[in-house]
Amino acid sequence: MTIKSTLTGAAIAAALLSTSAAAEVLFWSTQAKPVEEAQAMREQVLSGFAGEVDYQPNDGGPWITRLNAELEAGSGSIGVLGALHGDFSAMDPENLVDLDDLGVSAASDTFNSLAMLGTDNMQYIPWMQASYIMAANREALPYLPDGADINALTYDQLIAWAANVHEATGEPRFGFPAGPNGLKHRFFQGYLYPSYTDGVVRTFASEAAVGAWEAFRELWAHTNPGSTNFSFMQEQLLNGDAWIVFDHTSRLAQAFNDRPDDFVAFPAPAGPTGRGFMPVIAGVAIPATAPDMDEARALVEHMLLPETQIATLRATNFFPVVDVELPDDLPPSVQAAGAAVATMSASPDANPGLLPAGLGDKGGEFNRVFVDTFERIILAGQPIEAVLEDQKETLMRIMEETGAPCWAPDAPSEGACPVE
Amino acid sequence: MNPRLLPYVLILPVTLFLCLFFLYPFVLVAQQAFSDGSGFTLDNFRDVTSHWKFPISLKNTFLLALAVVPIQLALSLLMATMVNRMKRGRDLILYIWTIPLGISDLAAGIIWLAIFEQSGFLNSMMGGLGLIDSPTNFLSYQSPMMVFVAIMLAEVWRATAIMLVILVAGIGLIPKEYYEAGEVFGATAWQRFLKITLPMLRPSLQTALVLRVILAFEVFAVVQALGGTLFPVLMGETYEYQFTLLNAGAAAAIALIILGISIAFTLIIMRALRVPKGATI
Amino acid sequence: MTAETTDVAEVGANTRKAGQYVYIAAVVLLCAWVIVPLYFLLINTLSSPEAVNSYPKPFIPEFDLGSLTFFANFAGILTALKNSILVAALTMVMSIAIGAPAGYALSRFEFRGKELFRLLILLTRAFPLPLLALPLAVMFIRVGIDDTIFGLALVHTTLAIPFAVLITFSLFSGIPIELEEAAWTLGCNRLTAFQKVILPLVLPGITASAIFAFVISWNEVFAAAVLTIENRTLTAFLLQNLDTSPLHLKFAGGFILVVPALIFIFAVRKYLFAMWGIANR
């Protein structure tokens, strides 16, 4: 080998092996993943930060794998984590830096106490919030049952409405995110169960729960059978495969932004025990292996600034967690979703639930209980009572193993939340 | 060099490489399947196999492999022989047929969902031809057969090229004289295919089949795109355990089960298509 | 008598002609089978968001470049493209350099542990990479090759090696050992015989392995997402965010990922037949 080629080889090797030690903070996030949102995060939300930020949104798999690898190796490049409450609660709090001394927190004490993950310190800082709502194509409005107020629907009225649309158009046009990446479990945990049984865990296999599943089965009869492929209901709203849908506010946003005049957003329906609904909380945290603690802390503080929170709202359709004055020129999706959530919270029969807490890394298994129940009762057509009795065993085991106490709307418990 | 050592020298680089980047992490992961944090246990295997979805995913994975691989084998053999006797445009035709090779399974899922979804291209086409009044729902839980067929078509489209490329490279090595001799003795095209092409192609056939079968048991992305929650497969369950349920032990257990199935099929194929050393004429 | 023979000849000509038509029709049909789904992807890529969501779907693209422009302006996409190409090229070189000798050894020698070695090779493909990514990432961080092109190429090489070894193995097996032996008697040693006689013959197979290596590396998402941060590959950069993105961007992103792979296969396709003449003697 000549000297020249040796040198070139060395240069190439250096280029291929370079781990440039840039002072960028790596923001490792499971949120704001869609390419447009990621772009907006970089250009509008993080450009205001004094330092440099490398914003990298990821699927859950790579996110957790990389994070665990860095924690296990004892050194890493991730500066700040952005993820849902559930992602953080599955982690060992030891691996997250306590953030109390930052002096920033959410306006809601409930959120702040959730963020302690059962310890005495803030393990993450609430970053943004969202919820699940209903949306409909305006073409569906004429089929609303007589006397129904779209802002105060009941489940019975929703079923009748979906049935009317089905009959009139010949197509079942209720849309439900039952796809592999759909958030169906949240509907059962935060909407159906609280509305019918005033509980989630205690009442899992109750008489009232049987009624809830019967009602859902009726609704399913008017649901687009392709729903098992739907994960982002904005797609089906836009292409007309579904007229009335339930989903996460940010998974409906594109429909409202693309064609604001064609769709309406409205609160989730009410059942015999009120209008159940639940929040979504995302937080920011710092892993114990963060390379530059000070910059990471500065970035977390930056995320909680009122301006940043409003920019985040525009970029991601997630609402602020601190008290801010919202401007008037927000995107149509934000306006529609904001109004629907406000109506839902202010309704006289509101029955707000909380996110599952204290489940640790069993959060996924807890969700699977509900998904399995849905698939067995609705898709496989198995008898409701038998399925509930069977799944109840799994739920009881999870609650006993984790010792998680009940959360709203379940009545508080001493020790592990019992399945009655 | 000592000829007895030569083979070992030749396989040394691969062996070292795989030990470092495959066996080492593999052993670490496989251990998790047999441990519950304190000692040896088979609980993970018991847990995953007793879940109600396991038999369904197992059945689905097998059915899909059984339906797809023979079609792909026949199709790729057909295509390879067609390319082989082509006089003009061989390059171009072969290129077109190998295109799906460059398409990741995620992208293939996106493409085929656009065809089969309710407002997709297939319905648009049938509507345009006046075959249907309103778009039908192909991918619904009410028509599991249709879902299966859709997944099958997409898999045949996506992964036949893998076998085709291997077979084409192999078929080029069969000396033309054999065919000429066959023709002299009045063998029909079909007889020539059976008596010359198939036996001579055995090494390539074996490789193509083994690789394809192993990949068939790991099928995931296309199935998830088209089948949604309706068509669970083993690999989907593995990822579910690993990333949603955060249960690494259970995930490793299912992955080992898939590995076991793959090895069993590999051994069967290798036995059935045994390649004689040096393929003497 | 004369009339009879003409009849027979005519019938023969007719059958041959009919056969020719069937043959051409089959080629055209198979080409359409591959191309039409890709054409749909092209339509959706070149459509406005409204058209992508419309029903019935258009069958002629309206040449709206909005979605592609979005990606053209996407920060970092060119760097990601460069990284992807570098990783794929390294993977190609390493997997063939390491894999081909082993393929030769497998086809030409009987040695102890041969079956075990083959099983090790296959095992590599039968276990899902996402499960191995965690121990690999820990190792890479400790060694200091985390977030490097080279590190990722090592992992992709592990994925490509089974293809390289098995394809070269099947092709070497298809070449009669007498050819080599003849070269030895004519004064070549093992190495020069290999260079002058075997290498030209297996070039198509090497090309096939190269295509596999390139495509495997190009389309791999999981390891790329975990093992690269600043040096993200195009797939890690784009693909894993596509499933949650609006439809029109999903299709455009998918299209962008497909095109470079197609260009690569196009560029090397002729080597699949490179030594056609020699092979057919």
TrEMBL record, chain A:
Pfam families, sorted: SBP_bac_1
Signal peptide (residue range): 1-23
GO cellular component terms, A-Z: periplasmic space
Subcellular location: Periplasm
Major localisation: periplasm
InterPro entries the record matches: Bact_solute-bd_prot1 (IPR050490), SBP (IPR006059)
The keyword Membrane belongs to this UniProt entry's keyword annotation: yes
This protein's UniProt keywords: Cell membrane, Lipoprotein, Membrane, Palmitate, Signal
Domain of life: Bacteria
Family: Belongs to the bacterial solute-binding protein 1 family.
PANTHER family the record matches: ARABINOSE-BINDING PROTEIN-RELATED, POLYGALACTURONAN_RHAMNOGALACTURONAN-BINDING PROTEIN YTCQ
Designated name of the protein: Uncharacterized protein
Species assigned in the record: Pontivivens insulae
From TrEMBL, chain B:
All copies of domain ABC transmembrane type-1, residue ranges: 58-269
One annotated Gene Ontology cellular component of this protein: plasma membrane
Transmembrane segments: 5-27, 62-80, 92-115, 145-174, 209-233, 245-269
InterPro entries according to UniProt: ABC_transporter_permease (IPR051393), MetI-like (IPR000515), MetI-like_sf (IPR035906)
A UniProt-annotated Pfam family: BPD_transp_1
GO BP terms, alphabetized: transmembrane transport
Keyword entries, A-Z: Cell membrane, Membrane, Transmembrane, Transmembrane helix, Transport
Keyword Zinc: no
Cell membrane in keyword set: yes
Superkingdom per UniProt: Bacteria
Protein location: Cell membrane
CDD domains given in the database record: TM_PBP2
Mode of membrane association: Multi-pass membrane protein
Predominant location: membrane
Family the UniProt entry places it in: Belongs to the binding-protein-dependent transport system permease family.
Name of the protein this chain belongs to: L-arabinose transport system permease protein AraP
Gene name in the database record: araP_1
UniProtKB/TrEMBL annotation, chain C:
Signal sequence coordinates: none
Transmembrane segments: 20-42, 87-107, 119-143, 149-177, 197-218, 247-268
Domain ABC transmembrane type-1: 81-268
GO-annotated cellular components: plasma membrane
Claim: Nuclease is one of the keywords in the record: no
Predominant localisation class: membrane
One Pfam family per UniProt: BPD_transp_1
GO BP annotation list: transmembrane transport
Topology in membrane: Multi-pass membrane protein
InterPro entries: BP-dep_ABC_trans_perm, MetI-like, MetI-like_sf
Alphabetized UniProt keyword annotations: Cell membrane, Membrane, Transmembrane, Transmembrane helix, Transport
Compartments, as annotated in UniProt: Cell membrane
Entry similarity comment: Belongs to the binding-protein-dependent transport system permease family.
Protein name in the entry: Trehalose transport system permease protein SugB
Gene from which this protein is expressed: sugB_2
